Amino acid sequence: MSYDDIQTACVVRYPYLWAREATKGETEGRKSRPVAVGVRLARAAGDLILFFPITTKEPEPERFAVEIPTIEKQRAGLDRDLRLWIILDEYNSDIVGRSFYLESDPPIGKFSKAFFLPLMREFIARRKKSTGVERA
Questions:
Q1: What is the per-residue pLDDT for 2?
Q2: How far apart are the C-alpha atoms of 32 and 83, rounded to whole Å?
């Protein structure tokens, strides 16, 4: 498999490092979890990717998070019977091909454009309030 399949709206497994953990000095994600590939930007030194975590823990009301509808869970290869949220007020950034964490495994699924692109537009509008953790 190649990294070329890892594109916007795909869901992959990744050892996501939460911002609160990074603030405490942790450098490694505690477990591999499904994440949504939010943005992939071509760069000469390797493509930059933003990852948004997917969680079963219901986020606090003040968080920018969206519950994933059943049909989208199915498209993304996620468990349809679990309540799942995409957290959009924090992200991990990494570099394709230089990452210690990103594998070239195929995505487990992909969200529809109709569901995911409005989320990315809203993320862009709110990006200054988001917290990024650089993993590269």
A1: 75
A2: 18
